[in-house]
Amino acid sequence: MSRRAPSVPPLLPGFEYVSLLGSGGFADVFLYRQRRREVAVKVLLADVRADGAARRQFEAEADLMAHLSAHPRIVTVYQAEVAPDGRPFLVMEYCPPPSLDARYKTDPFAVDEALRTGIELAGAVETMHRAGIWHRDIKPANILMTQYGGPALTDFGISVLSAEADVAQGLSVPWAPPEVVSGQVASGLSGDVYSLAATVYSLLAGRTPFEIRGGENGKRALAERIRSTPLPPLDRADVPPALEQVLATAMAKAPAARYPSALSFARALQQVQSQLRMSVTQVEVRDDSVAPDRDEIEDDGATRIRSVVTVSPNVVPAPRQPGWGTADPALTATSVPPAGSAPAAPPDVRGQLSTPVVREFRGPGIASPAVEATIHRAPAEDPVAPDIVHAAGRTPVVAVLAAVVVVLVAVGAFLALRSPPDDARGSDSSSSAPAPVDAVGSPVPAPTAVVGTLQGAQAQFTWGNPDPEDGDTYLYRIPVPGTEASYTTTSATAVTVPAATGGTTCLEVLLRRANGTSSPEPATGCVGP
Questions:
Q1: All domains of the chain in start order, with CATH
Q2: Which residues lie in Low complexity bias regions (predicted)?
Q3: Are 438 and 445 in contact (CB under 8 A)?
Q4: 441-461: pLDDT as tens digits
């Protein structure tokens, strides 16, 4: 079947057409120049705009991308409107070619670059999942490179909110998990983890995971291998076994045997970086689904979890106090975080020329947007700051110093009265002591190769220690959905547990150091009949 001719680029006020970037099933993407920047404009085809399902899918993509585009590893959407000829269009960040799809086939990634790319994208995927969104089509072709050289996830055309997972979906077989190619379930959280790992595998291998060079690689042949064939080794001398094991775990046939989240997958990749003495890539996660005081919201040097910026139609966000908790790309790089906030991440200048704003499409039954052009926002200012500076200028220096001295004397006296003698302090120093924290940010590695074998009514599991130290022990448990099972301690690298009757038995294992620190995420292995 011949490829269709691209559509005619629409005349858009304030935009200058440059060239065609690409064509898809129901839209074309064009390069336009808008003022001093280049943008990618995705335009719905004229012959499908009357198709209600296609139009809803196009609008849903706009909504989802706008909701997530504050993340530095997700392509930014600037605006969504309807062209004078009636075709809806999206204005997005322009990411110059090539995509990862065009590169990995001829230039496989080095190990350090593949690890960095996988971790950065895992942060974007984790952010999506925490917002209740599943991508369902993660693959190299849907990962572009920004003008600053970082990967950015795009093409949310078949993404869905988790509550809508039963809708029809497209399928990219080479990176799809077994349960999807078998038609058992629609792709969801576990499927995204699988597809992300399959993408990292492709970047390293220079081919799709189950592709056989010179062999039959049609959809049916690939689907059969995905369902039944073990993941082929990468056959690269520079790829460590630990990385092969991480990819094999993330691409396990059984969803329950995979990493439970994209963040868990990212942390496993970080452990490989640590073992290879590489700089550990930070995971950028934005979360609007949890309270700020949850234990997992932390800045451990390797993971940063922030709130998601939701871009609402027809609304210009009011200026906010800049700081660690804000993830707005339109804030200036000179913003000062509030006192007591954690260190700010390097500023992301993508999209600063225009606040990402998505407006509803015009048409029958759809409200007309209240604003007709890209909305620009002036840098937020602190209205209190001028008064504070002015008052400080009038405060005598001597008075300030005197106040400081008084405070220091008071604090010293208070501590002297409260502090018990040295012998009293030493008598109960071990009570309620917090677990040691690795200040460098390199987590204790998880056990590797958790493998189970059935022995009648019992299941025996074995595992490895990637970095053994004196005093290491292990915590293990059988995960039970909906409950928080307690861990059992052992010093061995093998245990026997009761096997599930007629089902799959899984085991989660943590490595615990002699100082009390443990793996941030368990390693999981499963065995079934």
A1: 1-93+315-333+345-391 (3.30.200.20), 100-306 (1.10.510.10), 448-527 (2.60.40.10)
A2: 332-343, 427-442
A3: no
A4: 457 899 998 888 888 888 888
